[in-house]
Structures are given as C-alpha cells and as structure tokens.
Amino acid sequence: MRRSVDELRAFYGDPKGALVRRILAQRLDDAWGTADNCDILGLGYATPWLGQFTGARRVIAAMPGGQGAEPWVAAARNRTTLVDDRALPFPSGLFDRVLLVHAIEEADDPQALLNEVSRVLSPNGRVIVVSAARGGIWARTESTPFGHGRPSSRKQMEGLIRRSGLEPRAWSQALYTPPWRAALPLAEGIEQFGRLILPGTAGLIMLEAGRRTYARSRPRGNAITALNPVPALNPVGARSLPHAKMSATDAATRRSHLVQRAEPLYVGDPCTD
C-alpha cells in the first residue's frame, strides 16, 4: 500500500523532509539544470522538486491512484493529475525528462510502471529514478516514507530499467545523514564523510537512464563488396530535349550534389541539455 499524499506532504514539511529536499535538489540541478525547453513529467510524489525546472516548456505532476493527489502549483493553474501508473494517460514519446520519486518502492507492478515511463519518453529523453537504498538507515526507519515498500540496490534498479527497454547512463547515492533530529545540524559534514568513507550507508540511490541506441550492423565477409553503391531510388525527371542532354559525368556530379544537400530525418532533441 502506498503512503498517502497527506503523509508525504507532512514529511516534507518537517526538518527531515527539508533535508531530503535540499540534497536531492542539488543532485537534480547537477544532472538537468533548469531543463530549458523540456517537457517534464514528475511521477509519484515529485512536486517538491518540479518547481526548480524554471526553463521547462511544460511540467506535469502525475500521482498514482493509491497515493492520492494534491493541487500543484499552489499559486497558479493546477498541473497535477491522478493516474494509474500501469497505464499513463499520455501519448507515446511526449516527455523529454521523467522524474520518479516515491514511485517504484510501493508500486503494485514496478516493471509495468517503468514500461509506461519508457513509452512516454521521447527518443532522446532522460529518466531519473529515485529510490530508498537497500543498505541505508532510512530504509529501516518507518517514521519516514523511505521505510515503507521495497528499497532497491543498484543492480536491482538496473535490471528493472533494462527490462523496460532503457539503458542506465549514470548513477549516484546521497542521504548519508541518519534520520535523527540531532544529526540534522551536522548534515553537510556527514554527507561528505559518508560519500568518501561509508558509501554503503546512503539512504537514496538515483539512477539516470535513456533509450537504448544500436549501432548499424554491417554485412560480414564478402557481402560488403556485393553492395550496390547506386541509390535504390533514383529521381526520374522530365524527358530532356536533344540539346539539353547531359553527359554521364555531369549526371553523376549532379546526383552527388543532391546527396550532399539531403537533410537528416531526425535533427535531434528539441530539449536543450
């Protein structure tokens, strides 16, 4: 069962939640910046961080039905929708960036959720999945949302990502500070110490992924020499008058110019990295 939206809102309003917000915001800024000209989807409970993508073209918060939804943005037109995380109500390839927080740990079917994320991701899109780390103290503390559901290891998360047709690109850990109020004032030093000395105690694991890219396969052996260098489809012009005939050399030169001016079918990701 998912934590309710009221529990999540209350957690991120207290000092422990504020620490998580600050640490994760720094990592997201390093990874995506302001996400200029991007269409962004936040899935799960990602609203504490969606406001930092000030250059985005469109930002939507999708909250699972078992969790419940809250209005967001507070001082503007609502951009929150309640969804079935196994069948997202968005067209394929719509989003340049997808951020998942409190999404996979308590999902009924994490693989189906990530399959849907893969579907709605644009060809050059990027996904960041944030999950409670299996070896961290936070996953053992039921007073926080990270102490519920299924925490993940890096290997487990990579397996889910790959089975959804995506490829892991980068990963990181954070939240070494234990969820104790007395430790919060020392958080900056604890984070630096834990990252260098005790990496296995991190409370959060973050994995970034994108679509798989495949190299074009080349024929083997003598098959390369059998390829016909002449294009399979040649434009046929109007019948030339006798005085307008071109020599074979002129015709070949003209064809080469046409090939050089040909434009690619896909010019790249409109979302600026």
Structure, briefly:
By secondary structure, this protein is an alpha/beta fold. The chain contains seven helices and seven strands; from the N terminus they run H-H-E-H-E-E-E-H-E-H-E-H-E-H. The chain is globular, with a radius of gyration of 25 Å.
Outline the fold blueprint.
Elements lengths: L4 H8 L2 H18 L6 E6 L2 H4 L7 E7 L15 E4 L11 E7 L8 H11 E12 L21 H10 L2 E9 L12 H11 L6 E8 L36 H14 L12
Parallel strand pairs: 1-2, 1-4, 2-3, 4-5
Antiparallel strand pairs: 5-7, 6-7
Characterization of this structure:
With 273 residues, the protein is of the alpha/beta class. Helices cover 28% and strands 19% of the residues. Helix 4 links the parallel strand 4 (95-101) and strand 5 (121-132). The model is unreliable at 215-246 and 251-268 (pLDDT under 50).
Q: What characterizes the major β-sheet?
A: 7 strands, mixed
Strand runs, count: 7
Distance between the termini: 36 Å
Summarize the helix and strand pattern as letters: HHEHEEEHEHEHEH
Q: Main attributes?
A:
273 residues; alpha/beta; 7 helices; globular
